């Protein structure tokens, strides 16, 4: 049996965190003992891990450079005698890999979940230097793998691609009219949903521009924005200037724990990002047979097939986005066709069990490759 530690900054309900929980809870218990370390703080997903019987450790990193947190993480790794450490998201990728080296962990894996265009040369230097002590850097899409090979310069033999997966669960039973009534929305009003962090990469400003265009031709159209982030105040100001928020045509809902309910009641999911990895929210929508309107961003295009499982528009083109949203709102047969095709694609390419099996195989292959490694549960 391999002892595995997953290291991630927080346990918030976001894409990378959800993927980590799916993996940690899904790894076969007869082959893996799994624990989780939250570098900065815990969060709502802690309950899911504990319900799955997975020990959770809070490292409590408090500063950008926190040597105390690094020491605590190193001690945890030494005490747990972990065979495999997997890190997620930049801060945990840095602290986790340094601690793993200090603790003498045999196998170190880093998960990269997006083509991180926000990174500077300093970030790339850190990524490249730490790659030397990493057995595999796993991208969740080919776009991510290409980015880290071509832009960062990580050697191809250190890279692997394992697509994100989505749990095999049915959507919650929701009465769209009742949910709309909760939000003060007319039952017959078409409704779109954006769900995600309010960061520049998500392109919410383009969604607001598209909503401004559409309010003149479909004044009853409602757009829900579920999520929070540093751009919220600025985006609300833009929505006010367009008269979208005062009229209720755009609703900023803040952080929501019931995104699946909102998704079930919406006519479509909208994701106008400039870059992604393999967007979890798109997989969730497709699993729920909801059509997706998205930008043709790296990563997203590996999930959404234009006019087959969703509609794709050029990045930053609010007019094209408005046209695509108008099609979705006006054509129920299109929504049904795209929704069913999206469900079929998720079932055939992006199931959670496929993702878990690929990571399990990678862990064992890398462990077997280590000189002197002995574990009777892993055949050589």
List keywords for this structure.
2 domains, single chain, 7-stranded parallel beta sheet, 6-stranded parallel beta sheet, elongated, 380 residues, 14 helices, Rossmann fold, alpha/beta
Outline:
The chain has 380 residues and is an alpha/beta fold. Helices cover 42% and strands 16% of the residues.
- Total DSSP E strands: 13
CA distance, first residue to last residue: 14 Å
Net shape: elongated
> What is the element string, with H for helices and E for strands?
EHEHEHEHEHEHEHEHEHEHEHEEHHH
- The CATH architecture of the largest domain is 3-Layer(aba) Sandwich
Superfamily at the CATH H level of the largest domain? Glycogen Phosphorylase B
- Please estimate the helix content: 40-55%
Instruction: Give the strand line-up of the largest sheet.
Output: 3-2-1-4-5-6-7
The level 1 CATH classification of the largest domain is Alpha Beta
Number of helices: 14
Low-pLDDT sequence parts: none
- The averaged pLDDT comes out at 94
Our Rg estimate from Cα atoms comes to: 21 Å
The structural class is: alpha/beta
CATH topology of the largest domain: Rossmann fold
Strand content: 15-25%
What number of structural domains do the residues give?
Answer: 2
Query: Biggest sheet, in brief?
Result: 7 strands, parallel
């Amino acid at each position: 049996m391999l002892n595995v530690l997953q290291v991630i900054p927080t346990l918030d309900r976001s894409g990378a965190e959800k993927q980590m929980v799916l993996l940690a809870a899904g790894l076969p218990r007869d082959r893996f003992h799994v624990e989780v370390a939250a570098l900065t703080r815990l969060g709502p997903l802690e309950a899911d891990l504990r319900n799955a019987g997975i020990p959770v450790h809070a490292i409590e990193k408090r500063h950008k450079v926190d040597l105390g947190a690094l020491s605590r993480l190193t001690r945890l790794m030494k005490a747990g005698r972990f065979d495999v450490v997997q890190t997620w998201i930049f801060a945990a990728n840095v602290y986790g890999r340094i601690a793993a080296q200090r603790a003498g962990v045999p196998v170190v894996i880093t998960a990269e979940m997006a083509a991180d265009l926000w990174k500077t040369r300093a970030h790339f230097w850190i990524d490249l230097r730490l790659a030397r002590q990493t057995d595999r850097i796993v991208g969740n899409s080919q776009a991510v793998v290409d980015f880290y090979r071509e832009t960062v310069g990580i050697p191809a033999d250190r890279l692997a691609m394992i697509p994100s997966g989505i749990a095999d669960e049915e959507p919650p039973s929701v009465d769209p009219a009742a949910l709309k009534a909760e939000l003060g929305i007319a039952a017959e009003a078409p409704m779109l949903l954006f769900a995600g962090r309010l960061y520049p990469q998500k392109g919410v400003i383009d969604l607001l521009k598209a909503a401004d265009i559409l309010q003149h031709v479909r004044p009853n159209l409602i757009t829900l924005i579920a999520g929070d982030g540093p751009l919220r105040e600025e985006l609300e100001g833009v929505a006010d200037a367009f008269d979208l928020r005062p009229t209720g045509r755009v609703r900023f809902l803040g952080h929501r724990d019931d995104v699946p309910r909102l998704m079930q009641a919406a006519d479509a999911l909208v994701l106008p990002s400039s870059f992604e990895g393999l967007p979890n929210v798109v997989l969730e929508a497709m699993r729920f047979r909801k059509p997706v309107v998205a930008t043709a961003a790296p990563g997203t295009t590996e999930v959404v097939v234009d006019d087959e499982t969703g509609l794709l528009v050029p990045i930053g083109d609010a007019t094209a986005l408005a046209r695509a949203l108008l099609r979705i709102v006006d054509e129920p047969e299109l929504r049904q066709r795209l929704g069913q095709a999206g469900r079929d694609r998720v079932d055939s390419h992006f199931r959670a069990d496929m993702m878990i099996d690929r990571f399990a195989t990678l862990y064992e292959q890398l462990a077997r490759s280590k000189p002197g490694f002995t574990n009777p549960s892993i055949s050589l």
